[in-house]
Amino acid sequence: MKLVLCFLLLAITLQIPAQTFDVEAIKLEGANDKRINLVFMGDGYTAFELDQFITDATNFSSSLFGQSPFTEYAAYFNVYAIKVISNESGTDHPGTATDVTEPVIDVKFVDNYFNTSFDTANIHRLLYTYDSATVYDVLADNFPEYDQPVILVNTSEYGGAGGPYATSSTGTSADEIVIHELGHSLFDLKDEYYPGDALAGEAINMTQETNTSLVKWKNWIGTSGVGIYPYGTSGNAATWNRPHQNCKMRYLGVPFCSVCKEGIVEKIHSLISPIDAYTPNNTTVDEPTFPLDFQLDLIKPIPNTLESEWTLNTVSFASNVDEVSVLETDLVEGANTLTAVIHDNTPFLRVDNHESVHIHTVTWTINYSSLGINDIESELNNYTISMYPNPTNNILIVTLESNSSSNLKIEIMSLDGKKVKSTSISNYENTPIDISHFSEGVYVSNFYSGNILIASKRLVKN
Question: Which of the ends of the chain has fewer CB neighbours closer than 10 A, N or C?
Answer without folding.
Answer: N
